[in-house]
Amino acid sequence: MTELAAYWPPFGLTLTTPRLVLRPIRDDEIPAAVRAALSGIHEPGRSPFSNPWSEAPAHELGTNMAQWYWRCRAGMTSEEWTLLLGIWHDGQFIGCQDVEAKNFPTLKTVTTGSWLRQDVHGRGFGKEMRAAVALYAFDWLGAEVAESEAAAWNRQSLGVSRSLGYELNGVTRASWGGNAQDVQKVRLTPVTFKRPDWDLKVKDHEATAKYLGI
Q1: Domain 14-193 CATH class label
Q2: In principle, which of 48, 87, 157, 166 could form an S-S bond with 150, CB 3.0–4.6 Å?
Q3: Is the pLDDT of residue 167 over 90?
């Protein structure tokens, strides 16, 4: 465990897949995250996010991202928490995968969201990193349900969900960025999960689980 992880245990957590490393973003890594976001995540005007954060002006985006990372860290409790995991491939920061829970001791449910640099789309990284957090949630955190959602038009995200065994869980009408949007909800359980043919390597889980009250 590093000295910093002694004060904030999730900083010691590392998830490793065949091609990716997932771990909480430290302050000195925020510039890499900002550069990745500024390089492009989606087509202009076609935001896949309920909050169109990626469309903020370049001079505001970095500040907004840093504030969000700090807010999530500061607000973590055993009842409500968000793990923001940076994604590294061959030593390069390529995106972020988050895992969020509310009333986890009772509901045993997590929700996930993610983004990737546009120049690495189509290489299966989205599926690999979502599989990683599903494995971690079910096998290490004791989750019983993993939920996600995507705009009804977002075939790429919904395709990743289907490939991992998520089941359709209803369509809702929501305001995304001030615009009405049909949102497809999806749901995964250990029974429906189509597990990958590789094993997830996990480092320093115990300290993180204790910090989260698990």
Answers
A1: alpha beta
A2: 157
A3: yes
